[in-house]
Write a structure and sequence with these properties.
The chain is an alpha+beta fold. The chain is about 40% helix and about 10% strand. The protein folds into 3 domains: about 80 residues, Integrase, DNA-binding domain (Double Stranded RNA Binding Domain, 2-Layer Sandwich); about 100 residues, DNA polymerase, domain 1; about 160 residues, hpI Integrase, Chain A. It has a 4-stranded antiparallel β-sheet with strand order 1-2-3-4. The protein has a 3-stranded antiparallel β-sheet with strand order 5-6-7, with no helix packed on it. The C terminus is likely disordered.
């Protein structure tokens, strides 16, 4: 039997055949020779090193003997120890670049996004367009000045893109902090150095004055000729729901007899079920939509039977010459609702939804006083 030395020698490494783990003694930097016997009786030898990375003992493979000699193994062990002292990971799994951290952040969020969501592609596009200087830098080397150089040029000229870039870059640094790759978020200091967007005024969707709503709807109906897109726009005006809620409306959600539309939680921005009381005009719109949708579960299906695209709705408004957005009609409803200041009745003396009907306030008030009655917003 070969006597085990206090520290490894080239002769011992060459001749040892008994399975076991043979350390290189004190000062050996965790280096050891591991001897195995395979099923066919053959002896194999490999080098391993135990080091502490981020507070955890980790075993690193240094290669097989005799391809890696004792001298080679000791040299590798010394190099690894030096890298650990510098805060690096000798396994090649050190601090990631921003591009790698962004990829892993997107993967972390992917399960919480709806199936088929465009968000992964949108996040990647944001990083490619507005965080390109950060991509090849390690996340622990990125400073607030680096972030400022990305956000500064678009902060006032492209406020929406800047807001999304800020949010998504922040998410990457929060992931990095959670993984102990850095201690702070440089976005905070960068944003503190920037002016308030557009002088501190928040951007809003263009809303029509209440007196122009009826004319806008007449133009939409004339151009849309009762198409699903035109009817969808009308329902948005009459109910003040968000455009996405109307475009995705299903017949199973609507109770025509009770004049109630119940939007499920999964389709609501707030994540809570919402009941919308339906006015006479809204019911008229839905009856027309039934003729278009035929057997489709969608209230407003596209020509291909799918949900109407946002661009389809925007194009309709553009062709109709309406100087607003569909989302802006919600602002019109809110401003109209507050003009007369009376809690019980909306403009034109029309009753508002009762408290037990959790509709949005002022929905019924979109028909001007004395409007000809087809039931919706004063449109004949």
């Amino acid at each position: 039997m070969t006597k085990r030395p206090r520290t490894l020698t080239a002769a011992f490494v060459r001749t040892v055949g008994r399975p076991g783990v043979y350390g290189d003694g004190r000062g050996g930097r965790g280096l050891s020779l591991r001897v195995y016997r395979t099923a066919n009786g053959r002896v194999t030898k490999t080098w391993r090193q135990r080091v502490r990375i981020d507070g955890r003992l980790t075993s690193i493979g240094l290669g097989p003997y005799p391809e890696v000699t004792l001298a080679d193994a000791r040299e590798k062990a010394l190099d690894n120890s030096r890298r650990v002292r510098r805060g690096q990971d000798p396994r090649g799994r050190g601090v990631p670049t921003f591009a790698e951290a962004a990829r892993r952040t997107i993967e972390l969020h992917r399960d919480s996004w709806k199936a088929g969501s465009p968000l992964p592609q949108q996040w990647e596009s944001t990083f490619r367009l507005h965080a390109a200087p950060l991509l090849d830098k390690r996340v622990d080397r990125i400073t607030s000045a680096d972030v400022l150089a990305c956000l500064g040029p678009i902060w006032n000229s492209m406020p929406t893109a800047a807001r999304k870039a800020k949010h998504r870059i922040t998410a990457v640094f929060r992931w990095s902090i959670g993984r102990n790759y850095r201690r702070d978020n440089p976005v905070d200091r960068a944003v503190a150095a920037l002016p308030k967007p557009n002088g501190g005024t928040a951007g809003h969707h263009r809303a029509l004055p209440h007196g122009e709503i009826a004319a806008a709807l007449r133009s939409i109906r004339r151009v849309g000729r009762g198409s699903p897109a035109a009817l969808c726009a009308e329902l948005i005006v009459l109910t003040a729901v968000r455009p996405g809620e109307a475009r995705g409306a299903l017949w199973d959600e609507i109770d025509m007899d009770a004049a109630r539309w119940t939007i499920p939680a999964e389709r609501m921005k707030a994540g809570r079920e919402f009941a919308v009381p339906l006015s006479t005009g809204a019911l008229d719109v839905l009856r027309e939509a039934r003729a278009w949708s035929e057997k489709s579960p969608l209230v407003f299906p596209s020509r291909t039977g799918r949900t109407l695209a946002p661009k389809t709705m925007s194009r309709l408004l553009q062709i109709a010459g309406v100087d607003s957005t569909l989302h802006g009609f919600r602002s019109s409803a809110r401003s109209l609702d507050g003009r007369d200041g009376r809690p019980g009745r909306g403009r034109g003396g029309l009753p508002r939804p009762r408290p037990e009907e959790p509709g949005r306030a002022g929905v019924s008030a979109l028909r001007p006083a004395g409007a000809p009655c087809r039931g919706h917003a004063g449109v004949e």
